[in-house]
């Protein structure tokens, strides 16, 4: 039914360009199988939300990580090592992060996406984000022409 591992441990995966190596590959290439959403995605979208899958190991693209980091920092700074205090502080920790801060993290994530989108690697993207962060803006609504030209 599917490509098996060989005795030497190699294999176990279909070749990327294979179209008919095994039943599993033939099925997964069928249009109705390709269009099938995961249960998680279906449930989220049924509730009226947008489901976005982010690449693994790229926390810079997931700005909720910065939110959780700030919440943890708040909790750490207001900690007396009791569960009661943790419970009391949790809502305050969540409320301590302003919408403007979340928007800044989202904007920084956009700064990462643009270089990735044109095919740059992590190090080059990091350089672009630093350049972007160090530039002075006259308006938060306008992207400088140099960057607009660079990233289309
Ligand atoms: Zn296969």
Question: What does it look like?
Answer:
- InterPro entries: RNaseH_sf (IPR036397).
- Helix 4 crosses helix 5 and helix 6 crosses helix 7.
- By secondary structure, the protein is mainly α.
- The chain has eight helices and no strands.
- The protein has a domain of 93 residues.
- The chain starts with 22 loop residues before the first helix and ends with a helix.
- The site of zinc ion has 8 residues, from helix 1.
In terms of topology, how is this protein built?
Layout lengths: L22 H6 L2 H5 L3 H8 L17 H14 L5 H13 L3 H19 L4 H13 L10 H7 L1
Helix pairs in contact: 4-5, 6-7
This protein binds zinc ion.
Main β-sheet: number of strands, strand sense, barrel status?
none
Output mean pLDDT.
Answer: 86
Number of strands: 0
Q: Strand fraction band?
A: under 5%
Percentage of residues in helical conformation: 55-70%
**Low-confidence runs:** none
> What is the alpha-carbon Rg in Å?
22 Å
Bound molecules: zinc ion
Number of helices: 8
Concise summary:
One of its GO terms (molecular function) is nucleic acid binding. This is Unplaced genomic scaffold SPHSTscaffold_39, whole genome shotgun sequence. The protein is mainly alpha-helical and 152 residues long.
């Amino acid at each position: 039914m599917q490509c098996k591992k060989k005795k030497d441990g190699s294999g176990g995966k279909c070749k990327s360009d294979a179209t008919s190596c095994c039943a599993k590959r033939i099925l997964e290439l069928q249009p109705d199988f390709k269009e099938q959403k995961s249960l998680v995605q279906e449930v989220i979208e049924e509730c009226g939300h947008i489901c976005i899958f982010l690449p693994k190991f790229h926390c810079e693209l997931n700005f909720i990580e910065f939110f959780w980091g700030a919440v943890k920092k708040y909790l750490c700074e207001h900690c007396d090592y009791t569960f009661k205090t943790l419970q009391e502080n949790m809502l305050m920790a969540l409320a301590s992060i302003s919408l403007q801060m979340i928007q800044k993290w989202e904007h920084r994530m956009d700064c990462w996406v643009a270089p990735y989108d044109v095919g740059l690697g992590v190090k080059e993207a990091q350089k672009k984000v630093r350049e972007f962060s160090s530039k002075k803006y006259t308006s938060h609504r306008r992207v400088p022409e140099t960057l607009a030209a660079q990233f289309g």
